[in-house]
Amino acid sequence: MRGSLTRRALALTVAAVAAFGLTGCSSQEGVTNAAVAAEVGDTVIFESDINEMAQGIDTVATELGILEPTSTLAGLRVTALQYRIQGVLTDAIVSEAGLTITDEDRADMAVLTGWDAYYQRDETKEWVRGNLDLNIIAQRAQAGELTEEQLVAALETNTVEVNPRYGSWNTASWTLTGTGSLSEGTVFSASGH
């Protein structure tokens, strides 16, 4: 049930972005610095941060019995990067639209989507925050709190460049896709609850 709620909420967000005909920008060149996982606008996402997030996801998911302790970190790194990129993009939308998303809003959404165990833990709070904000933005877009101009402005100014090891950023679905060397790992999903 929780996994289907999360998938529906994410689908609603992507649908809200698609409804406005917005896909953002993605560079086909990719990041060439091996220490960098991605660049989103002016934000640099370092490999070390993604590795730390993946370790946190692994620890919490293993403790919750969602993952086996032998799961590969490669797939978790892809998932961590994907959610981190979503977080940077949602931060841009929140800023551009002048929205406020509180910790209480996120905690409520975490319960609704089944991410509460991750949101409560320091190791995974930042990782799941982007996903929670994405779901909150979808709700607010459906309620008419966002305009097309606000979404366009936020997405146009934040080109996403990904280290080719992770594949490429799909601007239509807000996911990592492709055949990067890390894209072959087991990708952790919201339906893992």
List keywords for this structure.
193 residues, 7 helices, two-stranded antiparallel ribbon, disordered C terminus, mainly alpha, 3-stranded antiparallel sheet
Brief characterization of the structure:
With 193 residues, the protein is mostly helical. It has 7 helices and 5 strands; from the N terminus they run αββααααααβββ.
What would your notes on this structure say?
This protein is mostly helical and 193 residues long. The protein has one domain. The protein contains seven helices and five strands; from the N terminus they run αββααααααβββ. The strands form two sheets. It has a three-stranded antiparallel sheet with strand order 2-1-3. Strands 4-5 form a two-stranded antiparallel sheet. Strand 1 (36-40) and strand 2 (43-46) form a beta hairpin. The longest helix has 25 residues, at 73-97. The chain is globular, with a radius of gyration of 16 Å. 40% of the residues are buried.
Shape: globular
Number of helices: 7
* Spatial strand arrangement across the major sheet: 2-1-3
Helix/sheet category: mainly alpha
Question: SSE layout and pairings?
Answer:
Layout: H1 2-19, E1 36-40, E2 43-46, H2 47-63, H3 73-97, H4 103-113, H5 116-119, H6 122-142, H7 148-156, E3 160-162, E4 168-170, E5 175-177
Antiparallel strand pairs: 1-2, 1-3, 4-5
